[in-house]
Amino acid sequence: MSMGDRSWVRASAFTAVLFLLITLATSRGQVGGLFALVVLLATLVAVTAFYRLFPDRHFFTIVLTNFLAVYTCIFSFFIEVNFAPVTPWLVLATFPLPVFTFLAGAWRNRTTIHKLLLQDQHREIHHWGKVFRWLLPAFLIGGLTFALPGHDFTPFEYDLLFLASMSAIAAIVFFVSDEVCSFLLETSLLFELFFAGMKRLVIPAFAFFSFYSLIVIVYACIYRIIDTLGGGGFIIGGELREITFTESLYFSIVTLSTVGYGDIVPVSNLIRVIISSQIVVGALLILFGFAEFVSYGRTKPQRRSKD
Predict the structure, then answer these.
(1) Residue (of 170, 147, 146) closest to 95 by Cα position
(2) pLDDT digits (tens, 9 = 90+) for 227-250
(3) What is this structure's pTM?
């Protein structure tokens, strides 16, 4: 299997997992599993149609799938926040509307899109400015919907406003489908380069994870030992008691990530000093770790070329 094929497989696996998670997370409350079914069917139709239209660009189809996954999240967000009273069956009916109008627009502009796809895949990216021509109107429509909650609209009026909003977005997507495809193409090039370069980052990622794990384990042992010898070092669940090793591992991870849930609270001044040192060590690890990440990713191809 070539490097390009392996990159495509990794990207496909990532996309499949991402889309499965989003579909499962957004299906609750949207007419049960019917919303998930509508999302999957609309995505399947869109991806199949684009693959038949543009069969030579696998990453282009993968990025389209990711784009539809993001659209699913945004759609679900606006339903929950601004359009909760909308009839559930209208939600199911309007979700595919921008997807299918985008397909219709892509078919209408297929000659232009084919020319974009035939250009050199390593060309300089220069179409990002056009993104705002279709994103801004869509965001404007979404922003206006935040004025709806709090008004005494009837469910029927909510249905009309929701249908009007989705129709407007569908119309925008139809007329700028070539620019959306240009954006997807540029993103697919970056996507392809990213997954092609993942292999050379495995070693530094493993090294970073190893150092991170060692710091977690060392400090967890220190917390456990000090608490065992001194006693009364932590309040756990509102109770002053001896910390277990499992709890000390958990506390070490939470401390290193600077989350601080507050379910385990240090009481001893000595432990507080050690916690402070762990936070500093964790910050330095992240700082130098990412620097080495970038350095390793840049220098390894140069070392290969010299060899």
Answers:
(1) 170
(2) 888 766 888 888 888 888 999 999
(3) 0.67
